[in-house]
């Protein structure tokens, strides 16, 4: 009897131990599986982050290659680019001119800002004239500013382009228009300045209060200044659109203006210029 009880007790104990071991094994497997899943998730996240970093490194390498190529190009230009050297010399010569002749002039940052600065100065009686209309953009600015103030506005252009070569990249025929533009508030006078100005001035007596000289060429600018010279008065405002700051600037509008001043003894003051372009504002003083 006692042996049987002891046997049964041993069996129960063995079963209990087996169950404990089994549960322990199951719990260990669960914990291992959870740890495995956690490690797998961490590895997946790390792989994703690594892929992102590698992608960024690849993009950075591409950007560095572009920058290096650009630096090589700039170095090459600095050493051997004739066009750049001409531009640098032209800017330096223009800066020297500013230092000597217009150290207190207003510096504008866009050609249209320079033009509007000049238009705000226009006062007194007289016509407003533009020489070199092209598509009519600047003539539209002139008309919008001066026509509401009761001033007659006229634009002159041959519309078949430059009558002769101007500078590198600007051959005869450059700026030709497919048609004569319509500019609200302004009257267009089409033809060469030499052909149209004498008759126009004969029909339109009186002073010139404002002139926008966008004729580019020495010859064309000289023609205009000689034609309207006796219409300029103290207070007349002139804007030269290609006065300086390009290779060869000393041979065109600048030359025409300085020769005109030498011939006539006209007194004037420089009031403004475009800091990184070619425009200069002048006001006649006597």
Q: In summary, what is this structure?
A:
This protein has 286 residues and is α/β, with parallel strands linked by helices. The chain contains seven helices and eight strands, in the order H-H-E-H-E-H-E-E-H-E-H-E-H-E-E. Helices cover 54% and strands 14% of the residues.
Blueprint of the fold:
Blueprint: H1 2-80, H2 82-101, E1 106-108, H3 111-121, E2 127-131, H4 137-146, E3 153-157, E4 187-190, H5 193-203, E5 208-213, H6 218-228, E6 237-240, H7 253-264, E7 268-274, E8 280-284
Parallel strand pairs: 1-7, 2-3, 2-5, 3-4, 5-6
Antiparallel strand pairs: 6-8, 7-8
Helix pairs in contact: 3-4, 5-6, 6-7
Label this structure with key terms.
8 strands; rod-shaped; 7 helices; SAM-dependent_MTases_sf; alpha/beta; about 290 residues; eight-stranded mixed β-sheet; Class I SAM-dependent methyltransferase
Notes on the structure:
This protein has 286 residues and is of the alpha/beta class. The protein is built from seven helices and eight strands. It has an eight-stranded mixed beta sheet, with helices on both faces. A hairpin with a 5-residue loop joins strand 7 and strand 8. The longest helix is centred in the N-terminal third of the chain and has 79 residues. It is rod-shaped. GO terms for molecular function: methyltransferase activity. Keywords: Methyltransferase, Transferase.
């Amino acid at each position: 009897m006692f042996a049987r009880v002891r046997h049964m007790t041993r069996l129960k104990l063995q079963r209990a131990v087996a169950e404990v071991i089994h549960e322990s094994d199951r719990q260990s497997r669960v914990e291992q599986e959870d740890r495995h899943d956690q490690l797998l998730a961490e590895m997946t996240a790390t792989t994703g982050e690594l892929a992102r970093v590698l992608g960024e490194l690849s993009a950075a390498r591409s950007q560095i290659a572009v920058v290096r190529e650009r630096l090589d190009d700039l170095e090459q230009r600095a050493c051997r680019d004739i066009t750049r050297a001409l531009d640098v010399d032209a800017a330096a010569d223009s800066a020297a001119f500013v230092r000597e002749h217009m150290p207190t002039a207003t510096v504008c940052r866009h050609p249209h800002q320079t033009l509007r600065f000049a238009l705000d100065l226009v006062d007194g009686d007289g016509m407003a004239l533009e020489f070199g209309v092209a598509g009519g953009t600047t003539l539209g600015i002139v008309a919008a500013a001066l026509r509401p103030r009761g001033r007659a506005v006229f634009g002159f252009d041959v519309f078949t382009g430059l009558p002769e070569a101007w500078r590198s990249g600007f051959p005869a025929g450059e700026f030709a228009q497919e048609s004569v533009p319509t500019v609200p508030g302004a009257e267009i006078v089409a033809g060469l300045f030499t052909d149209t100005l004498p008759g126009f001035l004969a029909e339109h007596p009186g002073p010139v209060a404002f002139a926008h000289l966008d004729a580019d060429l020495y010859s064309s600018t000289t023609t205009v200044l000689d034609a309207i010279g006796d219409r300029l008065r103290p207070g007349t405002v002139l804007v030269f659109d290609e006065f300086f700051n390009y290779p060869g600037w000393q041979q065109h509008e600048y030359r025409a203006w300085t020769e005109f001043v030498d011939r006539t003894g006209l007194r004037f003051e420089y009031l403004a210029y475009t800091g990184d372009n070619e425009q200069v504002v002048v006001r006649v003083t006597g």
